[in-house]
Design brief:
105 residues, mainly beta, Ubiquitin-like (UB roll)
């Protein structure tokens, strides 16, 4: 199965808690980040703002042990099912999705 990376060599990656099903974050991977993730069993991503590989938890201690990697039907999005070792969000929140954008009527 071949991943369809975008023009920058990245693939959107959704990160989900394997136990609760909660979506924790969305990040991007390039081929190097995916290889490191598969080799180490911990989540690695590509930081678009810093233009470098990023080992989730390397500075915060909030590592993510990857239990499963799934790919969507179009081969252009990955889903990492992880066991988080702490909050996913840089704000300290468990998930990056803790704010309601707009209330639905």
């Amino acid at each position: 199965m071949e991943i369809k990376y975008d023009e920058k060599g990245l693939v959107t990656t959704v990160v989900q808690d394997v136990q609760t099903g909660e979506v924790l974050m969305v990040a991007w991977m390039n081929a190097g980040a995916l290889r490191l993730t598969q080799e180490s069993g911990q989540a690695h991503f590509w930081s678009r703002s810093r233009a470098e590989l990023w080992h989730k938890g390397a500075t915060s201690g909030n590592f993510m042990d990857v239990r499963q990697i799934l790919i969507d039907c179009d081969n252009d999005t990955l889903l990492l099912k992880v066991e988080p070792m702490g909050p996913a969000c840089h704000t300290g929140a468990r998930s990056c999705f803790y704010r309601e954008f707009k209330k639905l009527e």
